[in-house]
Amino acid sequence: MKTTKNMINYTYKRARKYSFPIVIAIGLLLFVALIQFQIPQITQTIIDKVIPNKDFSALVTQLIMLGGFTLLMSVADYFSTILISRASQKTVGDLRNELYQHVLSLDFEFFEDQKTGDIMDRLNSDIGALQGLISTSTFSILGNIITFVWVFVFILINDWRLILLISVTFPLLYLTNRFFNRRIKGAFRKVRQSSSKITHHLQTTLTIIPLIKNFVTEDFEAKRFRTFTLENDALQEKATELQALHSPSISLIDTLGKIIVLGYGATMVMNGSMTVGIVVTYLSYLNLLQRPMKTFSSMVNRFQQASVSFERIQELLQVNPKILNNDKAYEVSSEKNDIAFNDVFFQYEEAQPVLSDISFTIPSGKVTALVGSSGSGKTTITKLLTRLYEADFGQILINDTNIKDYSIGSLRSHIGVVSQDVDLIDGTIRDNITYGAIDVSDAALTQAAQSANILTFIKGLPHGFDTQVGERGMKLSGGQKQRIALARVFLKNAPILILDEATASLDNESERYIQASLDTLIATKTSLVIAHRLSTIQNADTILVLENGRIVEQGTHLELLELSQRYSEIYNAQFK
Questions:
Q1: Cα angle value 465/468/473 (rounded, 5°)
Q2: Which domains does the chain have, with CATH numbers?
Q3: What pLDDT, on a 0 to 100 scale, did the predictor assign at position 510?
Q4: Contact 141, 295 (CB under 8 A)
């Protein structure tokens, strides 16, 4: 019950900005309810007065009234549906945008632990399920309740015995709905969880098509997908069975009400205490009395499905970022960019340190390289510098100021990053190079591509910079993707530079061209470079050698070779 209340508050609070069309639509629905109350009165008049008196003029009048009321009801129905649908769609769009904005604000750690398909399912299907809360069917329950009250009072005044007999069915309807509520909700919760597995599997496999093709795993992946769909089908079938049993149960109770009205009415007609027209009118009114119950039962199904989705949305909304701006965050100065790590410790998992007692400095405009075995903590250092993660202990300083005191946006805008794993968006080459930039001139774009040694390739394409790269850059080679990422950093021109295996995907010839461009770029920046190929970092001002999350050696290339220790071992393994 609490979940439903919170769900309604959450949804309608955001629908408040569209309250005017909703109020108009509700007014139209109330008008429809009034007409629905009047129509049986016309039927009674025709049966009890017009037909016995053979009054054709009165018949025409009553039929015109019936047709007019029906037309008015249809027009009101049409406009109320349009108004509510528009408000509903806009509200759902706002909800989806709000949730997406929240997801983007979460820490990098969150995305490493979550399945992308599950997040997508919550943003699409679960948000869509809330749309049923703001629909014509939902709001029409208000008109149905008003009609119920009018009819109930009308019958109570005219024949209190009949309304007493009919009221026997109301507790039965309530108890039946209560019986099915929790079962339907639990069933659809399992359906939503199963649907998330399907979405995640699709998202995962459709982005690794080359891997699937190369390892001939089409049948294997199809079998896995079939397993997920079979599970989903079974769960959906159980939920559908509950829904299918729910509606007939309500209909059975409705029929009991008709039996009561017909039995009581027929008896009264035969006793001369009631006319046939009144019996027909009561049967019509019985339908209006039962309609809120029927609407309520279907609305319960929608609410149960929506409440399951709302719980999943709330799970996302209850996750808050841990890495936040201070109340008085500074902007990073571009004049000087000294970097210092002081006694930094970090661990991803409890009691499993990744970095221990890391201390070093990078003077402004100098180059520091990180080398070491895989898993020694090199990339983690770059993630701490960009505040994708927060150090557990110690300080990271830029210009003698803790990076926690800088605004996150300012900090990251002052750092250019090129990693071994290139992220490209599904768009054009222009879109990818200028990603994150504003008002980029053609001259600046061309210069960035030239610096990254990819301009000749781009000019050779039929559509040049407007060539589509495909999803995740599937139309480009590894080296081409890497050079587009480099062009993006050239264009950003950030004063601090991180190169994490930036030339790893390039052939030797391309690497020579790029390395010359990188040397020019690095000359004016404070740079942190990670490279397995030591040939690319021999000119670094300082080289740090990491092993098991600790700095075991540091110095220049020649100084480290003279030590004949770990760096020398790595160098000899590559060049001798």
A1: 110
A2: 2-317 (1.20.1560.10), 337-414+526-576 (3.40.50.300)
A3: 66
A4: yes
